[in-house]
Design a protein that fits this description.
The complex is a heterodimer.
Chain A: H1 3-15, H2 18-52, E1 56-59, E2 62-66, H3 68-86, H4 94-116, E3 118-125, E4 129-147, E5 150-157, E6 166-169, E7 172-180, E8 183-187, E9 197-198, E10 204-208, E11 222-229, E12 234-241, E13 248-250, E14 254-278, E15 285-296, E16 299-306, E17 311-313, E18 316-324, E19 329-336, H5 342-365
Parallel strand pairs in A: 9-12
Antiparallel strand pairs in A: 1-2, 3-19, 4-5, 4-14, 6-7, 7-11, 8-10, 11-12, 13-14, 14-15, 15-16, 17-18, 18-19
Helix pairs in contact in A: 2-3, 3-4, 4-5
Chain B: H1 3-17, E1 24-29, H2 30-33, H3 48-56, E2 67-68, E3 76-82, E4 85-93, H4 99-110, E5 121-125, E6 128-137, E7 140-149, E8 152-160, H5 163-176
Antiparallel strand pairs in B: 2-3, 3-4, 4-8, 5-6, 6-7, 7-8
The chains are: A alpha+beta, B alpha+beta.
């Protein structure tokens, strides 16, 4: 056997070993313990994001501990390799095999779900039409460049952007001078304005706020950025914030905005009517629902969305979540998870495996 | 350092490099972009009024010598004070009373007796039309302007003791006041 072959075999045996499984389980135990304790500070959404839906846990910008994705990958690889190494095709082992396979399905399904599942909200006023939903927690920086009848949207997830980053976005190069994860803007209504800034930056002061980590809280990110054209012309210093409801022009080249991350769909949803009923003599909702029309190409379909009866369309589930503005605005919670079936399937396989193994054991005891 | 360590560190570096920012792009028909209109185009004139409307829901001119006071009631949108002059902008939705009931309310505030018939005088300041009223009770003066915007009634009220100074401020303020919503 060649040297490379020998090394691969050595690595295979190491990865299939019990030591790796024990190390992975201990790391997972520590991660769950620390993550659970830190949930007091971070809230459930940020805990899941920082500890479990991540490759590394960062502390002051440095990776200090493997995240849930790394540990899951390690355990998954260990499980697969251990099965390949020790696999024996016999009816006696079938139960064990099924039980471990179900764990593998759970791990892989959880990992895929962590990467591809989306949760967002569609906030829609009666009579309005939406082609997109918005994330509650994630923010994106966009440059909108309109040419003719089409707008090209350049987008970057703000989770990947730090101060001093320089980002080429279509016709603009944006250098982030400073970043606040939550801030409110106050209009400066006297003459003492920021003459050195352009756009909204001339008229607003920025007040930092602590990040609100409650599950449904909306934080407003703010950035001071310096913008150049692709050929190096300085267009000035701009303030962008998701607190501002409007994009702002950068010269007459393009518009820029910081906004909740959008997910566009190839169909539209129009809210025809929102209904909100209360228990008599109280303000406690007894019933609320949205009558919507989904327009997909030339097909228009009416749907009635109400509590515990979501609309399922093209892999996206629309739940009636809330309402606003004197019952004229409906808030729909959208969930898109292509591997929603994996825990159910894993449980089914686990159940079959356990029953199989139990029956075999009972027969052996006789 | 063994080769195993080397490969482990290399793998970590690959993982960290994989987290670098990436810009994506997609194309949309203009009507599907559906975002609020952008502010601050170089050809659109001053963008400050638009930002002020965005924040406050209406625009009023800068009043450098006046101080803005906060109020506890939700319908008073703006209260400015200079000396004994007080300027308020109030927004009422739904039933905002008849002309007679409003006039008698303002008369009562000045200590005047109620009247049985009342009318407000239409006047134009700048490009904007208002129904106006001027009241006086001894040294106390009051100017009121009313404008309907959609289902809302907006009231602008100025009180003070110097009718000349009040008249100067009044015309200037109402001419620039814009009660329309953000573009």
């Amino acid at each position: 056997m060649s040297r490379i072959g020998a090394r691969l075999k050595h690595a295979f045996h190491a990865l299939a070993g019990l030591k790796i499984a024990v190390v992975g389980l201990v790391l997972g135990f520590v991660l769950v313990l620390v993550g659970t304790l830190d949930q007091v500070n971070l809230g459930i959404y940020y805990t899941v994001k920082v500890y479990f839906k991540s490759w590394w846990v960062y502390w002051h910008g440095w990776p200090v501990f493997p995240g849930g994705m790394s540990i899951g990958l390690l355990l998954g690889v260990n499980l697969v390799f251990a099965h390949i190494k020790r696999f024996q095709w016999s009816m006696k082992k079938m139960g064990i095999w099924l039980i471990h396979s179900s764990l593998l399905v759970l791990l892989i399904g959880g990992a895929i779900s962590g990467f591809v599942s989306q949760e967002s909200q569609m906030i829609i006023r009666e009579g309005d039409t939406r082609w997109y939903s918005e994330s509650v927690h994630d923010t994106e920086l966009v440059v909108l460049h309109t040419q003719g009848d089409t707008t090209r949207v350049f987008q970057i997830d703000m989770a990947n952007v730090q101060a001093n980053d320089s980002i080429a976005m279509g016709p603009l190069v944006i250098t982030v001078e400073s970043r606040l994860n939550n801030a409110i803007l106050r209009l400066i209504d006297d003459a003492n304005r920021w003459q050195s800034a352009q756009g909204a930056g001339r008229y607003f002061s920025v007040e930092p706020r602590p990040v609100d980590r409650r599950p449904d809280a909306r934080n407003h990110m703010a950035l001071w950025v310096r913008i150049h054209t692709q050929d190096g012309t300085d267009l000035g210093r701009f303030l962008v914030s998701s607190w501002l409801n409007h994009p702002q022009w950068v010269g007459d080249i393009a518009t820029i905005a910081l906004r909740p991350t959008r997910y566009y769909y190839p169909y539209s949803v129009t809210l025809m009517e929102f209904t909100h009923r209360q228990h008599p003599g109280t303000t406690i909702p007894s019933y609320f629902s949205s009558d919507v029309i989904v327009t997909d190409g030339s097909v228009r379909q009416p749907f009635h969305i109400y509590m515990n009866h979501p609309l399922r369309y093209q892999g996206v589930t629309y739940f009636q979540a809330s309402f606003d503005d004197a019952d004229t605005v409906s808030i729909l919670q959208l969930v898109k998870n292509p591997v929603w079936w994996s825990p159910y399937f894993a449980c089914l396989v686990l159940g079959v495996g356990l029953v199989w193994h139990m029956v075999l054991m009972m027969r052996r005891l006789r | 350092m063994t080769r195993g360590h080397f490969w482990l560190i290399a793998l970590m570096c690959v993982g960290l490099v994989g987290c670098q920012p990436t810009v994506t792009h997609y194309d949309l028909p203009n009507h599907r972009v559906q975002t609020n209109p952008a502010l601050g185009h170089p050809n659109a004139g001053a963008d400050y009024p638009a930002y002020k409307r965005m924040v406050w829901g209406f625009y009023w001119p800068d009043m450098p010598d006046w101080s803005r006071e906060t109020t506890s009631d939700t319908w008073t949108r703006l209260r400015l004070v200079r000396g004994d002059m007080v300027l308020t902008v109030t927004q009422l939705s739904g039933d905002s009373g008849t002309v007679l009931s409003n006039v008698n309310r303002w008369r009562r505030q000045l200590g005047l007796a109620p009247v049985t018939t009342a009318a407000m005088i239409p006047k134009t300041y700048g490009q904007t039309h208002y129904d106006t009223l001027v009241l006086r009770a001894g040294a106390s003066h009051m100017r009121v302007a009313q404008q309907a915007v959609g289902a809302d009634q907006w009231f602008v009220k100025l009180t003070g003791s110097d009718p000349v100074a009040m008249a100067a401020v009044w015309g200037e303020f109402l001419a620039e006041l814009s009660l329309t919503q953000v573009p």
